Amino acid sequence: MLFSDIIGQEHIKHHLIKTVENSRIPHAQLFIAPTGSGVLPLAIAYAQYILCQNKDGENDTGNAACNMKFEKLGHPDLHFAFPVTKSQKVKKHPTSNDFMEEWRKFVHETPYGSLFNWYQLLGIENKQGQIGVHEAEDIVKKLILKPFEGGFKVMIIWMAERMNAPASNKLLKLIEEPPEKTLFLLIAENEELIIKTILSRCQVLHFQPLTEQNIIDTLMSRHQVDENQAIKIAQQSNGNWNKALHLLKHDDNEEAFEKWFVTWVRAAFKAKGDATVVQDLIKWSEEIAKTGRETQKRFLKYCSHFFRQALLTNYNARSLVFYESQNNFDIEKFAPFVHGANIEDINKAIEDAMYHIQRNGNARIIFLDLSMNLTRYLHQKEEQ
User: What pLDDT is recorded for position 250?
Assistant: First the structure.
């Protein structure tokens, strides 16, 4: 995996390369990074730089055969551990070894993927994976052996906060005093869930979300996205490249979402002065409730983005407005109803709806409640 293929994170890349060039590689490192920031591919690129004795800051200058093994994630001294659970494939004591074929597919196809994406690939979305004591035993067995190719051994533990207490305790001694030329790279999203005894034994690096410019440039150069669309996606993705790709692939729903949104806000605005319009909101809520939960969540995110664009339009921040109507909706006329006195309430109502949808609440009730709240908020007056 080439460092140049990894989006952004230039400061971290430079730091990791310097640890190799200066022969000062910490034996246990913990990478704390938000979803979609590229920490997994960067950890793999770092391992490749070390194991293949690459130079000059890129993974195409050292041992060619070694670099080729990394392309298939098949190097014998590169090891992975990640959350797993029982499935149709493995009924008892599952470990990462049981899912290496699926793991290689996941890394190759979705290197910026989330834990939920991993569970989806395994078909265990409704379960909670973990890194358990049987996994820890496997890690110990792998790392006490000598390296196959005489250099380093690297163990990448992805989503390390999913290690349970027995597994963490079993690995403590090995992480503190590993065999010679053994490198632990732990990857986590939530530092607070890592037990303190593990945390104290690792050098911690904090990754930042990707910048909007990182995402804009990559969308334009690698996916031939026009600048206006790239900016719109970057604004919605919050530094998460995985989310940016999802928005890119699913923007065919935007026209339908806009129709839903326009129908909704028009009915919500009228409902305060005409109780009969409440029936329209009930009907609208029932229609949205018939769609899948992923569609409902994406629609709510679309609504949040739309209100933000309306607010920017209202305050004449034209350079930040990239909304283009698919249905001849005039955002200029709508914008004055979204302002500083109601935007926080609107956003909070949408976030609450998202929370309850994610937890399998009754979608019809959730969207109707959101609609009733919106009816009030749209009629709030801006403080002068």
Answer: 64
CB atoms within 10 A of CB 47: 25
Residue type, position 121, single letter: L
Distance CA 13, CA 46 (A): 8
- AA identity, residue 184: F
Domains of the chain and any CATH numbers: 3-208 (3.40.50.300), 250-377 (1.20.272)
CB count in 10 Å sphere of residue 260: 18
Beta strands in the chain (DSSP E): 28-32, 78-81, 153-158, 182-188, 203-206
Residue 350: its H or E element:
helix 343-358
Question: Using CA atoms, how far apart are residues 378 and 374, in angstroms rounded to an integer?
Answer: 6
Confidence band, pLDDT 50/70/90 cuts, at residue 284: very high
For residue 160, how many other CB atoms are within 10 A of its CB?
Answer: 31
- Please list, in sequence order, all residues whose beta carbon lies within 8 angstroms of the beta carbon of residue 285, skipping any fewer than 6 positions away: 363, 364, 365, 367, 368, 371
Residue 131: phi and psi, rounded to 5, are -105, 105
- Give bridge partners of residue 206 from the DSSP assignment: 32
Residue with tokens 């990791």: 16
pLDDT in tens, 45-76: 999 999 999 999 898 888 899 989 999 999 99
Average of per-residue pLDDT across 351-356: 94
3-state secondary structure (DSSP) of residue 344:
helix
- pLDDT at position 291: 86
d(CA 145, CA 261): 60
Confidence class of residue 369 from pLDDT cuts 50, 70 and 90? Answer: very high
Can you give the pLDDT at residue 89? 82
Contact 80/184 with Cβ under 8 angstroms? no
